[in-house]
Specification:
Elements: H1 29-50, H2 56-78, H3 86-110, H4 116-123, H5 126-137, H6 145-162, H7 173-196, H8 204-226, H9 235-263, H10 265-269, H11 275-287, H12 294-309
Helix pairs in contact: 1-4, 1-9, 1-11, 2-3, 2-8, 2-9, 3-7, 3-8, 4-7, 4-11, 5-6, 5-7, 5-12, 6-12
């Protein structure tokens, strides 16, 4: 889930005055980069723990609700204004579906039947889906040999992870398909945002907070229809859902855009390649999930292919202002 800020004109400044010193950060960007990698890498473990006590739609609702609360607090502190255009709100509603409500719910349902490690690796295919879709939907995105090679390499990596030579033996096809569809949903949302939400006049924080709010509303309408009222609120799953939203959906967004602002989108986007590694380590060490040799090997091939598809830096390749949203579960 991410929406980049719309471009806004820079106000005129008095050149006779000294430029203000750059804002000092409380923590070095490397520390925040590591924190973001850990938060998003552990998201898949938290989803798995959350679904032990709640229905998948309830996990997604709790996640979005607590994430929205964090961003609402940040907006209040920074005195951000909500978008005023009804058209903008309409586009944000669609973006919330593809970038939040749909992928979050699909990952939660997928982890009912597949390990969190596999879900994290499926999430890493988002750049592959994104490149394939951009060739169709974005006329300015032209294929290069390197990017096409990356797409093919990533596809081989996916087949390796899934153990295609064994006939996908022991693999839950439905759960895996849901996780892959979730990773596909992100680039669909990015392309939609890129086409509709440029130059709205609203800040990144205002757009993202509004988007999360609309995603929460969507789940609030779905949960009563498709899930029963929970019998209780078991401690560990409840804490997992709260952390998933407050950290993985709220704080992570603030960390992400802080990194993009300080070190640029290319460096910030590298966090994507640490997520499946951390998800795999967390699933194996804390949940006791089993992985065969093809899982880590295939994951490395997927990441190599994804890196190749992103190898050509383009200023127009960002969503709105040089910031390409990062994928996570």
């Amino acid at each position: 889930m991410s929406v980049s800020a719309a471009s806004r004109p820079t106000p005129a400044t008095d050149t006779s005055l000294p430029a203000p010193p750059p804002r000092r950060r409380a923590f070095d960007w490397r520390i925040r980069f590591a924190a973001l990698s850990l938060i998003w890498g552990f998201s898949f473990l938290l989803i798995k723990v959350g679904t032990d006590g709640f229905a998948p739609f309830q996990v997604t609702f709790g996640r979005l609700l607590s994430g929205t609360a964090v961003l609402a607090l940040a907006m209040a502190v920074r005195r951000e204004r909500l978008p005023r255009s009804g058209r903008t709100w309409g586009h944000l509603f669609v973006a919330a579906f593809f970038l939040n409500a749909l992928p979050f719910s699909l990952f939660a349902y997928a982890e009912l039947t597949i390990p969190s490690t596999l879900a994290g690796i499926c999430n890493a295919t988002s750049p592959l889906w994104g490149m394939a879709l951009s060739l169709v939907a974005l006329s300015e995105d032209r294929p290069t040999r390197r990017r096409v090679a990356g797409l093919g390499l990533g596809f081989i990596g996916v087949l390796t992870v899934l153990g295609a030579w064994q006939g996908f033996s022991g693999l839950d096809v439905t759960g895996t398909a849901m996780a892959l569809l979730a990773s596909l949903s992100y680039p669909v949302g990015w392309i939609y945002v890129r086409r509709t939400l440029a130059r709205t006049g609203s800040s990144t924080l205002a757009l993202t907070g509004s988007q999360l709010f609309l995603g929460t509303v969507q789940l609030a309408l779905v949960v009563p229809v498709f899930t029963p009222v929970p019998d209780g609120f078991p401690l560990l799953p409840t804490l997992a859902v709260a952390a998933l939203g407050a950290l993985g959906t709220g704080l992570a967004v603030l960390l992400q855009y802080g990194l993009v602002e300080e070190v640029g989108p290319t460096t910030a986007q590298m966090v994507t390649y640490f997520i499946p590694v951390i998800a795999t380590v967390a699933g194996v060490t804390l949940l006791g999930e089993q992985v065969s040799w093809n899982t880590p090997v295939g994951a490395l091939v997927v990441l190599a292919g994804a890196a190749l598809t992103q190898s050509r830096a383009r200023s127009s390749g960002s969503t709105l202002t040089g910031v390409r949203p990062l994928s996570r579960g």
